[in-house]
Amino acid sequence: MLWFDGALIAGPTAPFDLADRGLTLGDGVFDTALAIDGRLVFEAAHVARLAAATRALGFAVAPERIAQAMRAVAGGAGAIGTGAFAAIRTTVTRGSGPRGLAPPAEPRPVLWASAAALPPALPFASLTLHPTNIRRNDTSPAARWKTLGYLDAVLAATEARAAGFDEALFRNTHGRVACAGTGNLFALFGTRLVTPPLSEGVLAGIVRAELLRLAPSLGFTAAEQPLAFEEFLGADAVFLTNSLRGLAPVRAVGATPFAAHPAVAALGEALRAAMRP
Amino acid sequence: MLWFDGALIAGPTAPFDLADRGLTLGDGVFDTALAIDGRLVFEAAHVARLAAATRALGFAVAPERIAQAMRAVAGGAGAIGTGAFAAIRTTVTRGSGPRGLAPPAEPRPVLWASAAALPPALPFASLTLHPTNIRRNDTSPAARWKTLGYLDAVLAATEARAAGFDEALFRNTHGRVACAGTGNLFALFGTRLVTPPLSEGVLAGIVRAELLRLAPSLGFTAAEQPLAFEEFLGADAVFLTNSLRGLAPVRAVGATPFAAHPAVAALGEALRAAMRP
């Protein structure tokens, strides 16, 4: 199921310009959202973030067009017969251009969206993290947008799985904690909840923002603050957030184990509630 | 003119799987080569490097298939009526896969190549460099392959042009000179020719290797050695190399001017000679 060029098509193949800069240069951005029974969770935030990314990169796409594509595939996702959960991926590229790096003066962005069944066991499942030696490049604006250049995350995930872990943990060029390969990271110290600020080379995660918003009502103080790796390893609990996993408790970071923590369970329950209509 | 899936087609549009990981994750590599009157310059080196990149990333494509694609579009490039020079771009992706980062167990790589006319004034023309604050991520294996993730280079090139320069200069996470947005960099100190080693986050440029090979016969000692930025700015001359520009003398790096230098001209002449059949 694919929304491409303004219409639903069977997919996955479509007539595509092989000079599209998303394909030739990674010159594009995307969004991954969760759909439950055809309804997009945190839809407004997903649409706003992707639209903001296209504006920041100079090939603005109207939020309405993005929302239309997301909703079309989310609404159709019930029809793919996969149960309640679907992953909705929406991609926007700068469109095609002449050879070379210089963007076309008048970009004609290309937008499409697709839905994929999500294993019901994935959301909120705990996981383990492998610290990779590949650094998250916090000096690049691209580190703060969900751009098409995910090869570092692919390589680190492969390395993590080979070492017996579920996911990679990235430090940034300063050696401080940045994020996981596919999610934001939080550390809990007593009732203090800390996550690295965006300037550390971090995507403005939708669930990350939701947790920062929810935390005070559950008795936590929430702060965006740089986290040294040793400090992170010394936390009472750590967890990962992203739009498909929701809140995933971390059982281990490398050789450092973390026990299940009631505060993390409480935050998870609050998030589950916020995800309901 | 496009070689896609084993045949020449008019292009630029082809039926393409939008779940191709090259498009969704930047999970692919490419090569840019110069063709003169339909003949690929340094063909063997280009084919070998691209094949090596696919092996390193775990989706090996046979050198013969790569050479066939390159030659098909290079040979046809005369027909596009653009004069002597053409840029031949050859792209290989890991092919399509299920949602998520994990590569498919048995990748089915996708290969295509295209030709574009090259302005005759481009090769060997001098240029100016703007030092960007985006760092080249030398901690990533991707920094040493020509991967699809070029957004940092796109952003830095845009910034460079806005500041009145031709190209961006990247330092790495240590602050040392890495490369330009689209080429390797050399500095000349007396008769010593220095370029950063690959471990600095540098692509193994084909012309870079050719110059390291040619230099001794012209009375230079050639070394791969880390270069502090201030050291680079203090060189007698600096130049850029890539497969389309050949050797491009650098007239300025930010506010630091460089005069034309006879040694750079001599190296350029030697390279021109090596590019002839």
- Overall form of chain A: globular
Superfamily (CATH H level) name of the largest domain in chain A: D-amino Acid Aminotransferase, subunit A, domain 2
Regarding quaternary structure, what we see is homodimer
In CATH, the architecture of the largest domain in chain A is: Alpha-Beta Barrel
Number of domains of chain A: 2
Largest sheet of chain A at a glance? 9 strands, mixed
Along the chain, the helix and strand elements of chain A come as EEEHEEHHEEEHEEEEHEHEEEH
Distance between the amino and carboxyl termini of chain A? 24 Å
**CATH topology-level name of the largest domain in chain A:** D-amino Acid Aminotransferase, Chain A, domain 2
- CATH class of the largest domain in chain A, named Alpha Beta
Radius of gyration of chain A: 19 Å
Approximate helicity band of chain A: 25-40%
Mean pLDDT of chain A: 95
Structural class by secondary-structure content of chain A:
alpha+beta
The amount of beta strand of chain A, in percent, is: 25-35%
Number of helices of chain A: 7
Largest inter-chain interface?
A-B, 56 and 57 residues
Beta-strand segment tally of chain A: 16
Note poorly predicted spans of chain A: none
